[in-house]
Amino acid sequence: MSLIRRKPQRRVAIIGAGLSLFMRRALDTGKELSYYAASQALDAAGVRRKDIQAVVMATAPDAFDGVHMKGEWLLDGAGGVGKPYLRAYVGGGSGVFSIISGWMMVASGLFDLVLVVAEEKMSSCQPHPQGAFLTIFDHIIERPLGPNLLWIFSLEQQRYMAAYGIQNEDIALVSVKNKHNALAHPAAQVAAQLTVKDVLDSEVVAWPVHRLMVSPISDGAAAVVLASEHVAQRLTDHPIWIQGVGWCLDTSYWGNRDLAYPRYVEQAARMAYEMAGITEPRRQIHVAEPYDPFAYKELHHLEGLQLADRGKAPDDLAGGRFDRGGELPTCPSGGLMGVGNPIAAAGLMKICELFWQLRGEAGARQVPGNPERGLAQAWGDLMQVGTVAVLGVR
Predict the structure, then answer these.
(1) Residue 253 burial by CB count (10 A; 0-12/13-18/19+): exposed, middle or buried?
(2) Do residues 174 and 293 make contact, with C-beta atoms less than 8 angstroms apart?
(3) Would you tell me how many other CB atoms lie within 10 Å of the CB of residue 282?
(4) Where does the Thiolase N-terminal domain lie (predicted)?
(5) Are strands 54-58 and 85-88 parallel, antiparallel or unpaired?
């Protein structure tokens, strides 16, 4: 018998969201980007900074902003001075993990109002963000190979394609869809109207990955305000509830895994689904924002999320299932491929998008049919971190 007496967790809602422009070489500092997003979220929630009881900050490698102890450096811009403050950091998974961290703070009963901010200023990393990634691999087994993310992900894409007989034309459709969706997003960095031929005519960066299959170097920030149930119901008539969260860390040795399937995403998704009471995700999830830093990863992750059969997500994409007006609208925001990819802020951008979609406030990006439940997922560190959040209107 367990000696731990479990208390019922409190319900947690998102009551406001904010987003800076996503761009490259923003003149604004990381602090200023954080301030812009946090101010919008506070205004949308109808609260002031003094009402906030704790702050969660998500930001990835310190090298990207060119400072040491970046969480502390961003503290005042994120509104965290004089308050309990936590930095959430699991690489690219940080944006969704930040909402999980904030959810824990409120669900546990410690706080009633928590501000979650995510920021990245990748253009500050000199000469290139890939330089930071060269240092993260095992120094005996992997680093002597001189790995960078581009060629590791090209290996993964090649394995995914070979395992299921997928063609590069199938992968290119993700870029076409997401960059088109981003044309309706006011914060988008690389929105475009493209064809599959345009994508495959772009430069090959590491076969089979082409330039237009890769998300850009970006600067940007996102923020949300979380509230306990009784506070949320006092402040808004349209709270969006965090129904389930999940996370999983697989082995950090990417050479030890079958790269054709992201089992870390599946485990994180199953945890979130169980918490949210979801037994049929393909029927019960109405809009999805999977993590898409490379075009193939959207398809890869949709399969891990149990929203498509293994190796069949490309067929669903080609058939229109993932279009904004399809059966399961996927990355209606434009995703990282279209809006941009400031590492930690990218995942929280997806949470913001679901907040607006579920409230019917996404404007030209709004998916039809009044969606009632959405899913956001992010992925990071050494290709082994999965973070998932399920949001709903009830």
Answers:
(1) middle
(2) no
(3) 14
(4) 29-189
(5) parallel
Q: Which residues pair with 118 in a beta bridge?
A: 58, 222
* Global confidence as pTM: 0.95
Reported as a single tens digit per residue, the pLDDT across 116-168 is: 999 999 887 765 667 777 777 788 887 788 777 788 889 999 999 999 999 99
Average pLDDT across the chain, whole number: 93
Would strands 54-58 and 113-121 be described as parallel, antiparallel, or unpaired? parallel
Whether the per-residue pLDDT at 82 is higher than 70: the answer is: yes
Average pLDDT over residues 66-71: 85
Contact 379, 341 (CB under 8 A): no
What pLDDT was estimated at residue 277? Answer: 97
Find out whether 239 and 232 touch, Cβ atoms under 8 Å.
yes
Which residues lie closer than 8 Å to 394 by C-beta, 6 or more apart? 241, 372
Domains of the chain: 12-127+215-392 (3.40.47.10)
Look at residue 63 in the predicted model and tell me its pLDDT.
76
What are the C-alpha distances in Å from 176 to residues 169, 180, 215, 299?
A: 11, 6, 13, 13
154 CA to centre of own chain: 21
